[in-house]
Amino acid sequence: VEVRRAFPVDVAILTAVGLDRQKSSTRFSFPFTEDRKKETAVIQHDGDRLLAVVKGAPEVVLSQCVLSVERRKGYLAHADQLAAQGHKVIACARCLLQQAGRNGREPDKDFEYLGLLALEDPLREGVAESVRVCQQAGIHVLMLTGDHPLTARAVAVELGLGQGQPRVMTAEELESQSKLHGRPSLQQVDVIARSIPAQKLRFVRQLQAEGEIVAVTGDGVNDVPALQAADIGIAMGERGTQAAREVSAVVLLDDNFRTIVRAITEGHRLFQNLRLSYAYLLMVHIPLVVSAALIPLSGYPLLYLPVHIVWLELIIHPTALLVFQQLPLREVEEQKPRRSGLRFYSVGEWGLIAGVGVLQVEHQHQLAVHILEHRGIGSAFHQFPDLCEDVGVGDSFGDK
Protein backbone atom coordinates (compact mmCIF):
# COMPACT_ATOMS: atom_id res chain seq x y z
CA VAL A 1 0.00 0.00 0.00
CA GLU A 2 1.48 3.31 -1.01
CA VAL A 3 1.84 5.78 1.81
CA ARG A 4 0.32 8.65 -0.14
CA ARG A 5 -2.91 6.63 -0.56
CA ALA A 6 -3.02 5.27 3.01
CA PHE A 7 -4.99 6.59 5.96
CA PRO A 8 -3.05 8.52 8.62
CA VAL A 9 -3.15 5.52 10.96
CA ASP A 10 -1.61 3.30 8.27
CA VAL A 11 1.08 5.88 7.58
CA ALA A 12 1.97 6.00 11.28
CA ILE A 13 2.16 2.21 11.52
CA LEU A 14 4.30 1.83 8.41
CA THR A 15 6.62 4.58 9.61
CA ALA A 16 6.94 3.04 13.09
CA VAL A 17 7.78 -0.50 11.89
CA GLY A 18 10.12 0.74 9.15
CA LEU A 19 8.69 -1.61 6.51
CA ASP A 20 10.62 -1.58 3.25
CA ARG A 21 7.83 -1.07 0.75
CA GLN A 22 10.23 -1.72 -2.14
CA LYS A 23 10.50 -5.39 -1.12
CA SER A 24 6.83 -6.02 -0.47
CA SER A 25 3.56 -5.79 -2.33
CA THR A 26 -0.06 -6.29 -1.33
CA ARG A 27 -1.65 -9.38 -2.88
CA PHE A 28 -5.09 -9.25 -1.28
CA SER A 29 -6.83 -6.65 0.84
CA PHE A 30 -9.95 -6.92 2.98
CA PRO A 31 -10.95 -3.38 4.01
CA PHE A 32 -12.19 -2.25 7.35
CA THR A 33 -15.95 -2.03 7.85
CA GLU A 34 -17.92 -1.05 10.90
CA ASP A 35 -19.55 -4.46 11.23
CA ARG A 36 -16.29 -6.45 10.75
CA LYS A 37 -14.26 -4.07 12.96
CA LYS A 38 -10.98 -5.21 11.37
CA GLU A 39 -8.81 -4.83 8.26
CA THR A 40 -6.72 -7.62 6.78
CA ALA A 41 -4.06 -7.62 4.07
CA VAL A 42 -2.00 -10.42 2.52
CA ILE A 43 1.49 -9.17 1.63
CA GLN A 44 4.12 -10.83 -0.49
CA HIS A 45 7.35 -10.17 1.38
CA ASP A 46 10.98 -11.25 0.91
CA GLY A 47 10.53 -13.03 -2.35
CA ASP A 48 7.70 -15.54 -2.35
CA ARG A 49 6.70 -15.37 1.32
CA LEU A 50 3.06 -14.52 2.07
CA LEU A 51 2.36 -12.65 5.27
CA ALA A 52 -1.15 -11.91 6.54
CA VAL A 53 -1.51 -8.88 8.80
CA VAL A 54 -4.63 -7.72 10.58
CA LYS A 55 -5.51 -4.71 12.69
CA GLY A 56 -8.77 -3.75 14.32
CA ALA A 57 -10.83 -3.88 17.50
CA PRO A 58 -8.93 -5.75 20.24
CA GLU A 59 -11.74 -8.21 20.97
CA VAL A 60 -11.97 -9.14 17.27
CA VAL A 61 -8.24 -9.46 16.58
CA LEU A 62 -7.51 -11.38 19.81
CA SER A 63 -10.21 -13.90 18.95
CA GLN A 64 -8.15 -14.85 15.86
CA CYS A 65 -4.87 -15.24 17.76
CA VAL A 66 -3.38 -18.36 19.30
CA LEU A 67 -3.52 -17.37 22.98
CA SER A 68 -4.50 -18.91 26.27
CA VAL A 69 -7.67 -17.71 27.95
CA GLU A 70 -5.71 -15.98 30.71
CA ARG A 71 -3.46 -14.06 28.32
CA ARG A 72 -6.39 -13.04 26.15
CA LYS A 73 -8.20 -11.67 29.22
CA GLY A 74 -5.05 -9.83 30.26
CA TYR A 75 -4.64 -8.17 26.87
CA LEU A 76 -8.33 -7.18 26.82
CA ALA A 77 -8.01 -5.67 30.30
CA HIS A 78 -4.97 -3.69 29.11
CA ALA A 79 -6.98 -2.49 26.09
CA ASP A 80 -9.83 -1.41 28.37
CA GLN A 81 -7.37 0.51 30.54
CA LEU A 82 -6.02 2.42 27.54
CA ALA A 83 -9.52 3.03 26.19
CA ALA A 84 -10.65 4.47 29.53
CA GLN A 85 -7.93 7.11 29.12
CA GLY A 86 -9.53 8.25 25.86
CA HIS A 87 -7.21 6.45 23.46
CA LYS A 88 -8.32 4.75 20.27
CA VAL A 89 -7.01 1.22 20.78
CA ILE A 90 -6.09 -1.00 17.84
CA ALA A 91 -4.76 -4.55 18.12
CA CYS A 92 -2.31 -5.95 15.56
CA ALA A 93 -1.45 -9.52 14.61
CA ARG A 94 0.28 -11.43 11.81
CA CYS A 95 0.33 -14.89 10.32
CA LEU A 96 2.78 -16.54 7.90
CA LEU A 97 0.75 -18.24 5.17
CA GLN A 98 1.48 -21.29 3.12
CA GLN A 99 1.09 -21.32 -0.63
CA ALA A 100 -2.56 -22.22 -0.07
CA GLY A 101 -3.02 -18.65 1.06
CA ARG A 102 -3.12 -17.65 -2.59
CA ASN A 103 -6.78 -18.67 -2.83
CA GLY A 104 -7.88 -15.12 -2.01
CA ARG A 105 -9.89 -15.96 1.09
CA GLU A 106 -9.42 -13.84 4.19
CA PRO A 107 -7.29 -15.53 6.88
CA ASP A 108 -9.11 -15.58 10.21
CA LYS A 109 -7.17 -17.90 12.56
CA ASP A 110 -3.73 -18.94 13.81
CA PHE A 111 -2.50 -15.35 14.06
CA GLU A 112 0.42 -14.26 16.21
CA TYR A 113 -0.48 -11.41 18.53
CA LEU A 114 1.86 -8.42 18.08
CA GLY A 115 0.53 -5.78 20.45
CA LEU A 116 -1.74 -2.79 20.94
CA LEU A 117 -1.61 0.66 19.39
CA ALA A 118 -2.96 3.48 21.56
CA LEU A 119 -3.76 6.52 19.44
CA GLU A 120 -4.96 9.88 20.67
CA ASP A 121 -7.25 12.13 18.66
CA PRO A 122 -7.48 15.42 20.57
CA LEU A 123 -10.64 17.48 20.38
CA ARG A 124 -10.67 20.53 18.19
CA GLU A 125 -10.51 23.87 19.93
CA GLY A 126 -13.90 25.23 20.93
CA VAL A 127 -15.87 22.02 20.42
CA ALA A 128 -16.54 21.48 24.13
CA GLU A 129 -17.79 25.07 24.45
CA SER A 130 -20.08 24.54 21.44
CA VAL A 131 -21.53 21.40 23.03
CA ARG A 132 -22.19 23.37 26.22
CA VAL A 133 -24.02 26.04 24.23
CA CYS A 134 -26.18 23.40 22.55
CA GLN A 135 -27.08 21.80 25.87
CA GLN A 136 -28.08 25.13 27.38
CA ALA A 137 -30.31 25.72 24.37
CA GLY A 138 -32.02 22.36 24.89
CA ILE A 139 -30.38 20.71 21.89
CA HIS A 140 -29.58 17.08 22.60
CA VAL A 141 -26.17 16.11 21.21
CA LEU A 142 -26.02 12.35 20.60
CA MET A 143 -22.62 10.87 19.72
CA LEU A 144 -22.57 7.72 17.59
CA THR A 145 -19.20 6.05 17.27
CA GLY A 146 -17.69 2.71 16.41
CA ASP A 147 -15.08 3.11 19.15
CA HIS A 148 -14.78 1.12 22.36
CA PRO A 149 -17.39 2.14 24.99
CA LEU A 150 -14.68 3.25 27.42
CA THR A 151 -13.00 5.37 24.75
CA ALA A 152 -16.35 6.89 23.85
CA ARG A 153 -17.06 7.64 27.52
CA ALA A 154 -13.70 9.38 28.01
CA VAL A 155 -14.25 11.54 24.91
CA ALA A 156 -17.82 12.32 26.00
CA VAL A 157 -16.61 13.43 29.43
CA GLU A 158 -14.08 15.73 27.77
CA LEU A 159 -16.83 17.10 25.54
CA GLY A 160 -19.12 17.68 28.50
CA LEU A 161 -21.94 15.47 27.25
CA GLY A 162 -24.53 14.64 29.88
CA GLN A 163 -23.26 17.49 32.10
CA GLY A 164 -19.99 15.60 32.52
CA GLN A 165 -21.70 12.30 33.34
CA PRO A 166 -22.56 10.83 29.93
CA ARG A 167 -24.94 7.91 29.60
CA VAL A 168 -23.15 5.43 27.34
CA MET A 169 -24.71 2.38 25.69
CA THR A 170 -23.56 0.10 22.91
CA ALA A 171 -25.69 -0.49 19.85
CA GLU A 172 -26.05 -4.15 20.85
CA GLU A 173 -27.38 -3.16 24.28
CA LEU A 174 -29.97 -0.89 22.66
CA GLU A 175 -31.04 -3.68 20.33
CA SER A 176 -31.33 -6.12 23.24
CA GLN A 177 -33.45 -3.71 25.28
CA SER A 178 -35.65 -3.06 22.27
CA LYS A 179 -36.45 -6.77 21.97
CA LEU A 180 -37.09 -7.25 25.70
CA HIS A 181 -38.70 -4.03 26.90
CA GLY A 182 -39.36 -1.97 23.79
CA ARG A 183 -37.19 0.77 22.40
CA PRO A 184 -35.73 3.05 25.09
CA SER A 185 -35.96 6.76 24.46
CA LEU A 186 -32.78 8.07 22.87
CA GLN A 187 -33.25 11.25 24.89
CA GLN A 188 -31.91 9.23 27.81
CA VAL A 189 -28.68 8.34 25.97
CA ASP A 190 -25.68 10.56 25.26
CA VAL A 191 -23.32 8.11 23.52
CA ILE A 192 -23.94 5.02 21.42
CA ALA A 193 -20.70 3.05 21.08
CA ARG A 194 -19.83 0.20 18.76
CA SER A 195 -22.46 1.39 16.32
CA ILE A 196 -22.41 0.95 12.56
CA PRO A 197 -23.65 3.42 9.91
CA ALA A 198 -26.57 1.15 9.01
CA GLN A 199 -27.96 1.68 12.52
CA LYS A 200 -27.92 5.45 12.10
CA LEU A 201 -31.04 5.30 9.96
CA ARG A 202 -32.98 3.47 12.68
CA PHE A 203 -31.89 5.99 15.29
CA VAL A 204 -32.89 8.92 13.06
CA ARG A 205 -36.36 7.50 12.45
CA GLN A 206 -36.81 6.73 16.13
CA LEU A 207 -35.96 10.31 17.11
CA GLN A 208 -38.33 11.67 14.47
CA ALA A 209 -41.06 9.38 15.78
CA GLU A 210 -40.48 10.97 19.20
CA GLY A 211 -41.22 14.37 17.65
CA GLU A 212 -37.66 15.64 17.38
CA ILE A 213 -36.06 17.70 14.62
CA VAL A 214 -32.99 15.65 13.72
CA ALA A 215 -29.72 16.85 12.20
CA VAL A 216 -27.21 14.16 11.21
CA THR A 217 -23.53 14.51 10.37
CA GLY A 218 -21.76 11.99 8.17
CA ASP A 219 -18.97 11.56 5.69
CA GLY A 220 -19.17 8.06 4.21
CA VAL A 221 -21.29 6.27 1.64
CA ASN A 222 -22.88 4.23 4.42
CA ASP A 223 -24.14 7.46 6.00
CA VAL A 224 -26.19 8.40 2.92
CA PRO A 225 -29.53 6.80 4.05
CA ALA A 226 -29.37 8.57 7.43
CA LEU A 227 -28.40 11.88 5.82
CA GLN A 228 -31.37 11.60 3.46
CA ALA A 229 -33.84 10.64 6.19
CA ALA A 230 -32.75 13.39 8.60
CA ASP A 231 -34.49 16.73 8.68
CA ILE A 232 -31.08 18.31 8.07
CA GLY A 233 -28.24 16.27 6.60
CA ILE A 234 -24.77 17.69 7.24
CA ALA A 235 -21.83 16.30 5.27
CA MET A 236 -18.14 16.80 5.88
CA GLY A 237 -16.59 18.87 3.11
CA GLU A 238 -12.94 17.99 3.69
CA ARG A 239 -13.03 14.24 4.23
CA GLY A 240 -16.59 13.46 3.14
CA THR A 241 -17.40 11.38 0.09
CA GLN A 242 -19.09 12.79 -2.98
CA ALA A 243 -22.22 10.73 -2.32
CA ALA A 244 -22.57 12.14 1.20
CA ARG A 245 -22.13 15.71 -0.03
CA GLU A 246 -24.71 15.33 -2.80
CA VAL A 247 -27.55 14.14 -0.55
CA SER A 248 -26.88 16.57 2.30
CA ALA A 249 -28.57 19.89 2.83
CA VAL A 250 -25.44 21.41 4.37
CA VAL A 251 -21.76 20.80 3.61
CA LEU A 252 -19.20 21.87 6.21
CA LEU A 253 -16.12 23.25 4.51
CA ASP A 254 -14.04 23.07 7.70
CA ASP A 255 -15.53 19.86 9.22
CA ASN A 256 -15.91 21.72 12.51
CA PHE A 257 -18.75 21.31 14.99
CA ARG A 258 -18.50 24.99 15.93
CA THR A 259 -19.68 25.88 12.43
CA ILE A 260 -22.90 23.95 13.03
CA VAL A 261 -23.57 25.90 16.23
CA ARG A 262 -22.96 29.21 14.44
CA ALA A 263 -25.37 28.13 11.71
CA ILE A 264 -28.02 27.28 14.32
CA THR A 265 -27.56 30.70 15.90
CA GLU A 266 -27.91 32.43 12.54
CA GLY A 267 -30.99 30.37 11.71
CA HIS A 268 -32.60 31.29 15.03
CA ARG A 269 -32.01 34.95 14.33
CA LEU A 270 -33.49 34.78 10.82
CA PHE A 271 -36.53 32.88 12.04
CA GLN A 272 -37.10 35.28 14.92
CA ASN A 273 -36.72 38.29 12.62
CA LEU A 274 -39.30 36.88 10.22
CA ARG A 275 -41.77 36.27 13.04
CA LEU A 276 -41.33 39.78 14.43
CA SER A 277 -41.60 41.37 10.98
CA TYR A 278 -44.81 39.55 10.08
CA ALA A 279 -46.30 40.20 13.52
CA TYR A 280 -45.59 43.91 13.04
CA LEU A 281 -47.14 43.91 9.56
CA LEU A 282 -50.23 42.04 10.74
CA MET A 283 -50.79 44.30 13.74
CA VAL A 284 -50.54 47.35 11.49
CA HIS A 285 -52.64 46.05 8.61
CA ILE A 286 -55.46 44.52 10.66
CA PRO A 287 -56.69 47.91 11.93
CA LEU A 288 -55.92 49.51 8.58
CA VAL A 289 -58.06 47.07 6.60
CA VAL A 290 -60.84 46.70 9.16
CA SER A 291 -61.22 50.43 9.83
CA ALA A 292 -61.15 51.22 6.10
CA ALA A 293 -64.07 48.82 5.62
CA LEU A 294 -66.15 49.25 8.80
CA ILE A 295 -66.14 53.04 9.11
CA PRO A 296 -67.84 53.65 5.72
CA LEU A 297 -70.24 50.78 6.47
CA SER A 298 -71.15 52.55 9.73
CA GLY A 299 -72.35 55.56 7.78
CA TYR A 300 -69.28 57.74 8.08
CA PRO A 301 -67.20 59.15 5.20
CA LEU A 302 -64.16 57.31 3.89
CA LEU A 303 -61.34 57.36 6.42
CA TYR A 304 -58.54 56.70 3.91
CA LEU A 305 -58.01 57.84 0.38
CA PRO A 306 -55.79 55.78 -1.97
CA VAL A 307 -52.94 58.23 -1.47
CA HIS A 308 -53.12 57.59 2.28
CA ILE A 309 -52.80 53.83 1.77
CA VAL A 310 -49.84 54.24 -0.55
CA TRP A 311 -48.15 56.61 1.88
CA LEU A 312 -48.67 54.23 4.82
CA GLU A 313 -47.29 51.26 2.86
CA LEU A 314 -44.21 53.27 1.89
CA ILE A 315 -43.53 53.74 5.60
CA ILE A 316 -44.62 50.36 7.01
CA HIS A 317 -42.69 47.92 4.81
CA PRO A 318 -39.27 49.64 4.80
CA THR A 319 -39.40 50.03 8.58
CA ALA A 320 -40.23 46.32 9.01
CA LEU A 321 -37.36 45.39 6.72
CA LEU A 322 -34.75 47.70 8.21
CA VAL A 323 -35.58 47.49 11.91
CA PHE A 324 -35.97 43.73 12.34
CA GLN A 325 -33.20 42.82 9.89
CA GLN A 326 -30.69 44.65 12.05
CA LEU A 327 -31.63 42.98 15.34
CA PRO A 328 -28.54 41.92 17.30
CA LEU A 329 -27.50 38.26 17.05
CA ARG A 330 -28.50 36.45 20.22
CA GLU A 331 -26.61 33.43 21.47
CA VAL A 332 -28.29 30.14 20.72
CA GLU A 333 -28.56 29.29 24.44
CA GLU A 334 -31.09 32.10 24.80
CA GLN A 335 -33.45 30.30 22.45
CA LYS A 336 -35.90 27.57 23.35
CA PRO A 337 -35.71 24.19 21.60
CA ARG A 338 -38.23 23.66 18.83
CA ARG A 339 -40.03 20.46 17.99
CA SER A 340 -41.21 19.19 14.63
CA GLY A 341 -44.81 20.33 15.27
CA LEU A 342 -43.85 23.98 15.57
CA ARG A 343 -46.05 26.57 13.88
CA PHE A 344 -44.99 29.97 12.70
CA TYR A 345 -47.13 31.49 15.48
CA SER A 346 -48.59 29.70 18.46
CA VAL A 347 -52.27 30.03 19.38
CA GLY A 348 -51.38 32.52 22.10
CA GLU A 349 -49.33 34.64 19.72
CA TRP A 350 -52.16 34.69 17.18
CA GLY A 351 -54.47 35.84 19.98
CA LEU A 352 -52.03 38.60 20.93
CA ILE A 353 -51.76 39.82 17.33
CA ALA A 354 -55.55 39.79 16.90
CA GLY A 355 -56.08 41.51 20.26
CA VAL A 356 -53.66 44.32 19.44
CA GLY A 357 -55.30 44.72 16.04
CA VAL A 358 -58.80 44.92 17.54
CA LEU A 359 -57.68 47.48 20.11
CA GLN A 360 -56.20 49.63 17.33
CA VAL A 361 -59.40 49.29 15.29
CA GLU A 362 -61.48 50.44 18.23
CA HIS A 363 -59.08 53.30 18.92
CA GLN A 364 -59.14 54.49 15.28
CA HIS A 365 -62.93 54.19 15.18
CA GLN A 366 -63.36 56.33 18.30
CA LEU A 367 -60.81 58.83 17.03
CA ALA A 368 -62.58 59.15 13.66
CA VAL A 369 -65.98 59.60 15.32
CA HIS A 370 -64.56 62.17 17.71
CA ILE A 371 -63.02 64.21 14.89
CA LEU A 372 -66.16 64.07 12.78
CA GLU A 373 -68.41 65.05 15.69
CA HIS A 374 -66.25 68.05 16.55
CA ARG A 375 -66.07 69.23 12.95
CA GLY A 376 -69.69 68.47 12.30
CA ILE A 377 -70.83 65.37 10.48
CA GLY A 378 -73.16 67.31 8.20
CA SER A 379 -70.40 69.71 7.21
CA ALA A 380 -68.13 66.76 6.45
CA PHE A 381 -70.78 65.13 4.26
CA HIS A 382 -71.38 68.36 2.30
CA GLN A 383 -67.73 69.19 1.82
CA PHE A 384 -66.66 65.70 0.69
CA PRO A 385 -68.36 65.73 -2.80
CA ASP A 386 -66.95 69.24 -3.48
CA LEU A 387 -63.48 67.96 -2.70
CA CYS A 388 -63.99 65.06 -5.11
CA GLU A 389 -65.07 67.41 -7.90
CA ASP A 390 -61.95 69.50 -7.33
CA VAL A 391 -59.69 66.49 -7.85
CA GLY A 392 -61.59 65.33 -10.95
CA VAL A 393 -63.62 62.45 -9.50
CA GLY A 394 -66.88 64.07 -10.60
CA ASP A 395 -70.23 62.50 -9.67
CA SER A 396 -68.92 58.97 -9.25
CA PHE A 397 -70.11 59.04 -5.62
CA GLY A 398 -73.67 59.90 -6.66
CA ASP A 399 -75.79 62.20 -4.56
CA LYS A 400 -73.94 61.17 -1.43
- Average pLDDT value? 79
Q: Work out the oligomeric state of the chains in this entry.
A: single chain
Major sheet strand order: 1-2-3-4-5
What is the first-to-last residue Cα distance? 96 Å
The SSE order reads HEEEHHEEHEHEHEHEHEHEHHHH
Sequence stretches where pLDDT stays below 50 over 5 or more residues: 1-5, 377-400
Strand coverage percent = 15-25%
How many strand units? 11
Task: Describe this structure in a few short sentences.
The protein is an alpha/beta fold. The protein has helices at 8-17, 58-62, 69-84, 127-136, 149-159, 171-181, 197-209, 224-229, 242-247, 257-297, 306-325, 347-375, 377-390, and strands spanning 24-30, 38-45, 49-56, 88-97, 112-119, 143-144, 168-170, 191-193, 215-218, 232-236, 250-252.
